[in-house]
Design a protein that fits this description.
transmembrane; two-stranded antiparallel sheet; 32 helices; mainly alpha; transmembrane helix; single chain; oligopeptide transmembrane transporter activity; 6 strands; membrane
Length: 776
């Protein structure tokens, strides 16, 4: 009797059940059909075991399909499944298919759309991959560091290197001879065969690591330049290099130690990695198949061709908002109606107002500035928009009631002001060591912030506590498992055995990187940081290094989990400034060191974790990924330090407001003034993401999953890459040479959108706030 029951539950799956299961799983028909054989072989007891494991692992996972969880709960709670399985064959068959797909593939449609599970045999640590990768590290580090201090700036993103390295790799495949040598029993050839996706992703990871200038450069510039601290020892190449290596590698070491929390768990999807994976898959794994899509049409265009079409379209279009008609970037049409109406521009203005504008931009770069709606889950996009909308209402209430004297200041700016409503002169309150002078401070003014900055401070401090609480409440199980695996990592067994998703099982074939490698790297980098502070007259304490690293360690796991599941990064600049100001009162340089080793190191650690997840998805051996990241970081540090020395010594008038080549260093002026780090509030940068996010993540994904899986991330990476290349061409060929188009479309803003205005005016000679000499 038992055998007949088992045979009944293993009978072929009807088309109706297949369609229902596909909808529950957010899976394509092909994905469900691929696991039928595995599902047929499952026993009822094994199905229950897998279903229970999936429920425990994903019951609080907002990225996991809720319909799948409901089905698994019904299966677990239905007593007839165990007692009389012949009465519920549909539920059993459906559950078997669901647990089979979730066991043999990623549980997330986003990941399944851009990854393959059977490519562990392809070589990646090849001579050509190393040469091409390091070449792009040198190129991107040079350009990004050189032009990072220019306004407008140019910044080459990872997707640019990924796209440009493909034809270079294919050329190496075609023209290089198959000659090489044997080292440790492995043959290394100039041309080992076709240029494959693992080589390409290794190059991409190296470019991603090397493209970012070291976070220590803000310290170097503010120390060296006469308009700031004027400490000429900061021009020493060895001092600059020690700081660069120390700050960069500490982020890498922390990322490696947190792999059990941020890389290996399947819940750590890292949505921002999907576009890079999609391009990698598009260029190397093109198996074209027709998919049903909108307008009742079947689409059979290949992803590569779709990428080319989308790339060309966006490349051509970006010339309009990027150069020909720049007012399309921030489409201030409401403010143009009456540019001198302060109330209108304060509410609707996109430059100096709050950005309540229903049609704020025609620039995809602006639309994805805060949230990349084709990549980030729609719940996150909508949550961000609602928070931004409510924040705008609060700002209006504070401003129009003149709370904290904000009515005498612009409504939306990240600058700091004195009690006359003028820009705050930080130098006026510092002594010759550039420490706070209390007497000068009492004679000058308190610091006053705009309403938008105040609300940003409040919201950010609320986020710091809620982020930690959320992570503990919703991801406690994952954190405990991560610590357990971390301790077991010192044993000889693979820690990946604790993670049973398909990608971890495939990666377990490779030798892991021991924790002590990363730990030793951290110790070495701390020593470098201490040496830099102690060996030169910095007038600060090495405690800034330890306190800063402590901040990064404390918040890396909660911040990393949120970044890995939602795609949004919480930045701790406000908190690091607040804590360092209390720990090192009046010592501006110590505060800069704390911020560099704290919030900046945290951001670098998250970037390294993102790249480790890319290697995990594409099955790059961990020790190869480690070597590639270390090499790229070293090369980038040397290159950026060399470029930095050139900037400081050979660019005449660097960082001056009217420098002839526009190397005005806007970010260092802001940082030195200890102003708000993250830009002013503007809902106009968030609202444009809502509609395309809903169309992509809700409408198209819900109705045409196969179409969405095939084209969504390809569209995202095509747009971002086209914009980056078009912006680079515009910059180097036109803007850098002073070629501008002077017409109304580039000069449309006037009135309060051209120059900051205030609601209240001070009488001549008066100031607001506490009286001079009585500042708290």
């Amino acid at each position: 009797m038992a055998s007949s029951k088992q045979a009944d539950t293993n009978s072929p799956v009807p088309i109706t059940d297949l369609g229902r299961t596909r909808r529950h799983l957010n899976a394509t028909v092909e994905e469900v059909l691929a696991v039928e054989e595995y599902a047929d072989a499952l026993t009822l007891d094994k199905t229950k075991e897998l279903a229970n494991h999936i429920l425990n692992a994903h019951q609080l996972d907002f990225n996991f399909p809720s319909q799948t969880l409901d089905c698994l709960r019904r299966f677990q709670e239905d007593q007839s499944v165990a007692e009389e399985p012949e009465k519920c064959p549909d539920l059993i068959k459906e559950t078997k298919l669901e647990v089979s797909l979730l066991t043999t593939n990623s549980p997330y449609a986003e990941v399944r759309a851009v990854t393959k599970n059977h490519d562990t045999s392809l070589p990646c640590s090849t001579i050509r991959a190393w040469v091409i990768g390091l070449g792009f590290v040198i190129l991107m580090a040079s350009i990004n560091e050189l032009f990072s201090i220019r306004q407008p700036t140019i910044y080459l993103e990872t997707s640019v290197a990924q796209l440009l390295s493909y034809p270079v790799g294919k050329a190496a495949e075609r023209f290089l001879p198959d000659i090489g040598f044997i080292l440790f029993g492995v043959r290394h050839s100039l041309n080992p065969g076709p240029f494959n996706q693992k080589e390409h992703m290794m190059i991409t990871i190296m470019a991603s690591v090397g493209k970012t200038p070291p976070s220590s450069r803000s310290i170097i510039f503010t120390q060296f330049l006469d308009r700031f601290l004027g400490q000429k020892y900061a021009g020493s190449f060895s001092y600059q290099l020690l700081l660069a290596l120390s700050t960069d590698f500490i982020g890498f070491g922390l990322a490696g130690l947190c792999r059990n929390f941020l890389v290996y768990p399947s819940i750590c999807v890292w949505p921002t990695s999907m576009a890079l994976l999609a391009m990698n898959s598009c260029l190397h794994n093109e198996s074209n198949h027709a998919v049903p899509g909108p307008l009742r049409r079947t689409f059979n265009i290949s992803r590569f061709r779709f990428f080319i079409y989308a790339f060309i379209a966006m490349f051509v279009w970006y010339w309009f908002p990027g150069y020909i008609f720049t007012s399309l970037t921030l489409f201030n049409w409401l403010a143009w109606i009456h540019p001198y109406d302060f109330n209108l521009t304060a509410v609707t203005g996109l430059k100096n107002g709050l950005g309540f504008n229903p049609l704020p931009t025609f620039d995809w770069n602006v639309a994805t500035h805060s949230v990349d709606s084709l990549v980030i889950p729609f719940a996150v996009t909508m949550n961000t928009f609602i928070g931004c909308f409510l924040g705008g209402i609060v700002i209006l209430g504070i401003y129009y009631t003149n709370t904290y004297n904000t009515g005498y200041l612009p409504i939306n700016t990240n600058s700091i002001f004195n009690h006359y409503g003028q820009r705050y002169n930080v130098s006026a309150i510092l002594d010759d060591r550039w420490w706070l002078d209390e007497t000068k401070y009492q004679a000058y003014s308190q610091v006053h912030l705009a309403a938008s900055s105040l609300v940003s401070w409040w919201f950010d401090f609320a986020v710091y506590t809620t982020a930690t609480s959320y992570t503990v409440l919703y991801h406690c199980r994952d954190i405990v498992n991560g610590f357990r695996c971390l301790f077991r990592g010192y044993q000889k067994t693979s820690r990946l055995d604790e993670f049973d998703d398909i990608h971890s099982r495939l990666m377990s074939a490779y030798r892991e990187v021991p924790e002590w490698w990363y730990f030793s790297l951290n110790i070495f980098d701390i020593v470098l940081g201490i040496a830099a502070i102690a060996a030169w007259p910095t007038h600060t304490t090495v405690g800034a290094v330890f306190f800063g690293i402590g901040l990064a360690v404390l918040f890396l796991i909660p911040t990393g989990i949120i970044k890995a599941t939602t795609g949004l990064e919480i930045r701790y600049g406000y908190l690091s400034e607040f804590i360092s100001g209390a720990l090192f009162p009046g010592n501006a340089l110590a505060i800069s060191f704390f911020r560099c080793y704290g919030s900046a190191t945290l951001s670098r650690a998250l970037a390294f974790s993102h790249d480790l997840k890319l290697a995990h998805y594409v099955k790059i051996p961990p020790r190869v990924a480690f070597s590639a990241q270390v090499a790229a970081t070293c090369v980038s540090a040397f290159v950026c330090t060399g470029i930095m020395s050139f900037q400081l010594r050979d660019i005449q008038g660097v960082c001056e407001p009217h420098q002839k080549d526009k190397f005005t260093c806007p970010m260092f002026n802001t940082s030195f003034a200890d102003s708000i780090l993250f830009g002013s509030y503007n809902i106009g940068y968030v609202w444009p993401a809502v509609i395309p996010g809903w169309l992509s993540m809700v409408y198209v994904r819900g109705r045409y999953l196969g179409f969405w899986s095939k084209y969504n991330y390809v569209l995202s990476t095509a747009f971002s890459t086209a914009i980056a290349l078009a912006a680079a061409i515009i910059f180097f060929t036109l803007e850098y040479n002073g070629l501008e188009v002077n017409w109304w479309g580039n000069l449309a803003d006037a009135g309060c959108e051209k120059t900051n205005c205030t609601r209240l005016k001070l009488p001549e000679g008066e100031y607001f706030g506490p009286r001079t000499g009585s500042f708290p």
